[in-house]
């Protein structure tokens, strides 16, 4: 069982801090270890643990029933209140805020699998008394821990091939595993999007997801999406299309990465790239291997950056593109990603945009080459399996 120290550290730092702690994750991202670690730290005290995916708690469905349940369990030894999948309780904020005010010494941990509800609606209604931790799929080091591998070229190839939600790994070696993995995606679509937003035309959700999955790492606009829908004989208003993308991002199936003008220091609101929570699904849905590896590498780098708390943009400098501009605490890093530096022409292409950037911030070209060949013009060549160490 992987302990996930990347998140354990954040969780430990928040113990006894006067906030409602919210852990947000995609369904099937592997939450059980984190939940058990939280509960274990309070094993000498009374705790209340409510898992809304268990049928025994079906009677707790709104603020009043949640409040009455918690009040019935309170005694002087109570130290921890943990509620899992709280998005399944309507108007939960009123009950949580009441308990927060009535029991100031109580540790309150809330978990759920919809970022739209948890990170925006819930924190706003809790009047900024909450703090959120985003939990993502395994980064490469966690993948190596899971499979007992050494970080090197071969293990990175395995990660590129298998990279997915943690709970999927036990399915990879069983018969008909691809269909089972599709079933997990269907669960997310139905529970976190269709049912939550009362969507009638489910096919539209899948059409948009499939388009974004097939265009990982490509610059897109709302127009390119509407043109695609028209090409398959479907029509959706711009407002509805934007809402559907918002829902997909809220369920962690898709991640939106806006374009940033490095020279002008402004964001292009109409242009962006999209990445996905499980890039290996592209091969399952579309088949073949051509183009899969390169785009999956870019997707892996994006997810690594956000996992380590970076704000990530697509960079633009003059007429050239920088794959990633990432920032944390006003510290910037520029990253260009390609599969291999196969010849001088590829090297010049990957260098060109970074060479246009005149500041002295770190600049990396990240590839699957087994040898780091140079540091040139302040730009460092880094193997993909070594990048995580530089993000720590």
Compose a concise summary of this entry.
With 392 residues, the chain is α/β, with parallel strands linked by helices. The chain contains 15 helices and 13 strands. The protein has two domains: 5-135, P-loop containing nucleotide triphosphate hydrolases (Rossmann fold, 3-Layer(aba) Sandwich); 175-391, no CATH class.
Question: What do these coordinates show?
Answer:
The two termini are 22 Å apart. This protein has 15 helices and 13 strands. The mean pLDDT is 87. The chain folds into two domains: 131 residues, P-loop containing nucleotide triphosphate hydrolases (Rossmann fold), CATH 3.40.50; 217 residues, no CATH class. It is α/β, with parallel strands linked by helices. The strands form two sheets. An eight-stranded mixed sheet has the order 7-6-8-9-10-11-13-12. The protein has a five-stranded parallel sheet with strand order 2-3-4-1-5, sandwiched between helices.
Helix content: 40-55%
What distance lies between the first and last C-alpha atoms, to the nearest angstrom?
22 Å
The run of helices and strands is: HEHEHEHEHEHHHHHHEEHHEEEHEEEH
The profile of the biggest β sheet is: 8 strands, mixed
Q: Which radius of gyration do the C-alpha atoms yield?
A: 22 Å
Whole-number average pLDDT? 87
């Amino acid at each position: 069982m992987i302990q996930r120290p990347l998140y354990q550290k954040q969780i430990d730092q928040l113990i006894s801090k006067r906030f409602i702690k919210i852990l947000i994750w995609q369904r099937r991202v592997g939450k059980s270890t984190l939940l058990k670690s939280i509960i274990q730290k309070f094993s000498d005290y009374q705790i209340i643990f409510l898992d809304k995916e268990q049928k025994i708690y079906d009677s707790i469905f709104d603020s009043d029933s949640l409040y009455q349940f918690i009040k019935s369990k309170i005694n002087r030894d109570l130290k921890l209140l943990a509620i899992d999948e709280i998005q399944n309780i309507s108007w939960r904020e009123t009950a949580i805020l009441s308990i927060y005010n009535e029991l100031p010494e109580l540790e309150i941990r809330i978990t759920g699998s919809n970022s739209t509800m948890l990170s925006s609606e819930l924190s706003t209604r809790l009047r900024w008394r909450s703090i959120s931790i985003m939990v993502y799929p395994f980064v490469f080091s966690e993948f190596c821990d899971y499979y007992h591998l050494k970080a090197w070229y071969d293990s990175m190839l395995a990660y590129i091939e298998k990279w997915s939600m943690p709970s999927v790994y036990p399915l990879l070696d069983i018969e008909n595993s691809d269909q089972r993995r599709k079933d997990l995606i269907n669960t997310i679509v139905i529970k976190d999007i269709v049912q939550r937003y009362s969507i009638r035309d489910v096919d539209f959700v899948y059409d948009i997801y499939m388009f974004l999955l097939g265009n990982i790492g490509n610059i897109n606009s709302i127009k390119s999406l509407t043109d695609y829908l028209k090409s398959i004989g479907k029509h959706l208003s711009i407002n509805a299309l934007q809402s559907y993308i918002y829902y997909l991002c809220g369920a962690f199936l898709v991640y939106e990465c806006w374009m940033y003008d490095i020279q002008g220091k402004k964001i292009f609101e109409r242009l962006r790239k999209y990445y996905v929570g499980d890039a290996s699904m592209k091969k399952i849905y579309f088949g073949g291997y051509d183009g899969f590896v390169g785009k999956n590498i870019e997707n892996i780098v994006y997810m690594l950056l956000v996992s380590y708390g970076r704000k990530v943009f697509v960079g633009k400098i003059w007429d050239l593109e920088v794959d990633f501009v990432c920032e944390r605490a006003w510290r910037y890093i520029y990253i260009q990603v390609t599969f291999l530096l196969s010849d001088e022409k590829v090297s010049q292409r990957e260098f060109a945009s970074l060479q246009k950037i005149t500041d002295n911030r770190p600049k990396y070209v990240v590839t699957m080459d087994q040898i780091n060949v140079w540091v040139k013009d302040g730009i460092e060549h880094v193997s993909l399996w070594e990048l995580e160490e530089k993000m720590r």
